[in-house]
Amino acid sequence: MLEIDEVEHRYGARCALAGVSFALARGGFHALLGPNGAGKSTLIGLMTGLLRGQAGEIRIDGHSLNRDPRRVRRQLGVVFQQPTLDLDLSVRQNLLYHASLHGLGRRLARQRCDRELARQGLEARAGERVRQLNGGHRRRLEIARALLHEPALLVLDEASVGLDAASRQALNEHVRALCRERGMTVLWTTHLLDEIAPDDNVVMLCAGSVVASGRADALCRRTESRTLQDAFRRLTTLQDIPAEERC
Ligand SMILES: Nc1ncnc2c1ncn2[C@@H]1O[C@H](COP(=O)(O)OP(=O)(O)OP(=O)(O)O)[C@@H](O)[C@H]1O
Prior knowledge:
This protein is an alpha/beta fold. Helix content is about 35%, strand content about 25%.
């Protein structure tokens, strides 16, 4: 579903991604892990076109972002790290605005809005201003918005940051249910390892490089670690390379 091939990115002299490659199979919950500054948001910026590609290739569902950016973006739904809802518009208005950006006609947009709000358990809040929603519900609304154009791949960039423990867990379980029930492919980025299950497929990024990938429990065995936290610590402390010397 997603192929990242030798992707490199610099901000001036600072190297954020140094030849990153990995692939995700279709369907299921995948995690992109990395400490602060690992390059997770940069990679998502490249996938979404917020950042211009400098080297390497990204393919979604077999289509190259370099060659066919519009088609690739149609396959992609994104929940960004920084919330991007208009707090003074209603829940429904936020969705309809986004639907129009994707070129959905009014009738189809309304149908999709109703369907996604129902799926996120937000149908009763449709007329309320977003300002009135709590943090967990705002995140659900962002997920509903990201799914309006029916993407094949949903990417969530540190979506649980800023939520309390119970809301964090609820959001994580909710996204896993989306995968199971709708056969979606999800890429969940985080530095919070308690959000990861032993059988999740994980890609570990550190200092702009992939330091490990595979099932979380297999990574623990391979590094002789008792917990994913231990494995993460071992794999990420090896990578203390100054940003100017990475690419
Ligand atoms: N606009 C920018 N200008 C210069 N350097 C940047 C910029 N954005 C990110 N960086 C640097 O690129 C590297 C990767 O940052 P990025 O935000 O992609 O990491 P991250 O894994 O998403 O971190 P976090 O978990 O803190 O969001 C870091 O060294 C960061 O300081």
